[in-house]
Amino acid sequence: MASFANLDHLTLHYRLEGEGSPTLVFLNSLGSDLRIWDGVVASLEGRCRVLRYDLRGHGLSDAPVGPYTLEDHSSDLAALLERLGIDRAVLVGISVGGLIALDFARRWPERAEALVLCDTGARIGSEESWNERMAAIRQQGLPEVARTVIARWFSEDFFTRRKAEAAGYYNMLSRTPVEGYLGTCAALRDGDLRPWLGGIRRPALVLCGELDKATPPELSRELAQGLGARLELIPQTAHLPCVEAPALVGQHIRSFLKELGYVR
């Protein structure tokens, strides 16, 4: 069932499921929403409490006028956790969701029990690349630009064997509120956590699709080294292994939680 939290400055759409400890918070990627985690959450078999929400500007959450910053996004997460009475959580973020998780851990380290960072980095892209994408969207429209963007979300095999799903995820991307997409592009353009990476000392696991061209394994390897974390590659997947191989992603998360003593 859809739930909504009014955080004074905006309303966020979320789902809170399950019981027990720890609480896992899943953060979506640019141009997607909380549904990209459906398969991963199902694979966890209700072993812990799970919070998913649509980032500002995405899904059913509000899309305020941009530009946004990483601090805007991490402050949204802090406000949502406070509203729901969640003191500490394991953060699971993919792409920009991973950057938001990192920024949250930088600002509120006592509230981040651990991090699972998927297909992300301390810095994604460049000022030039994000400005080019934003200009293309303003000139051509998001549905047109989305045709190029989604080609980096999944492997060629996914587009061949799972055509209906690929079409559905194109719809999700192309129907993202333009203000929200552009606002979060600005957050990625301006967000650089490399100077703070050495100070983020939380238990962490880094995952990456081995075929990811948007945030390639080399970027994840640098992130893992900076955090002193382990890197696990997800075979035959691209930028969204949570969609292409949810059971394997869930298995890595369960193993990580077991290492931390949270699950048996």
UniProtKB/TrEMBL annotation:
Domain AB hydrolase-1: 22-246
InterPro entries (UniProt xref): AB_hydrolase_1 (IPR000073), AB_hydrolase_fold (IPR029058), AB_hydrolase_sf (IPR050266), PcaD/CatD (IPR026968)
Enzyme Commission number(s): 3.1.1.24
Root EC class: hydrolase
GO biological process: beta-ketoadipate pathway
Keyword Hydrolase: yes
Pfam family name, one: Abhydrolase_1
Protein's UniProt name: 3-oxoadipate enol-lactonase 2
